[in-house]
Specification:
149 residues; alpha+beta; Aminopeptidase; 5 helices; 27% strand
Length: 149
């Protein structure tokens, strides 16, 4: 398995990653219904605030993650927030997710981040077990604050 950080010329691979997210999360509305065009995604892939990593097997995207580099104000440093991580079912338990997490940690160091963090639902035992190998859990609540209508 090969792990690759995507750049502006890798829009096709990002579309393949979106297909992985559709299957893994069973959410075609979010990841498939209103995809941005290639120009938008190319600009995003060129942004220092966005990280897309893929796991490739025989040249095909079988997993990946999307993360954001958050520049902090209280100190001259950054944090990396893993927004989504998924691996296609046939490729799970073969090191893809672990390789992606190792790769994003290396990207974090290269971009001056002091921490990488991710959220997991308590009921998602495989995700909790995976992330527990890399760090410690915090007992926090997540709130979606919707804009006024």
């Amino acid at each position: 398995m090969e792990f690759r950080v995507l750049g502006p010329g890798d829009v096709g691979l990002l579309y393949e990653l979106l297909d992985v997210f559709v299957r893994a999360f069973e959410d075609p509305d979010t990841y498939g219904a209103a995809r941005p065009d290639a120009a938008y995604l190319g600009a995003l892939l060129g942004s220092p605030e966005f990280v897309a990593l893929v796991a490739l097997c025989d040249g095909r995207v079988v997993g990946g993650l999307a993360a954001y580099v958050l520049t902090k104000f209280e100190r001259a440093r950054a944090e990396v927030y893993i927004y989504d991580l998924a691996v296609d079912e046939p490729f799970r338990r073969r090191g893809a997710a672990t390789g992606l997490l190792d790769a994003v940690r290396a990207v974090a160091v290269a971009r001056g981040a002091w921490a990488v963090y991710v959220q997991a639902d308590r009921a998602d035992a495989p995700a909790v077990a995976l992330y527990s190998k890399f760090g410690r859990a915090e007992n926090v609540l997540h709130f979606d604050l919707l804009p006024p209508t």
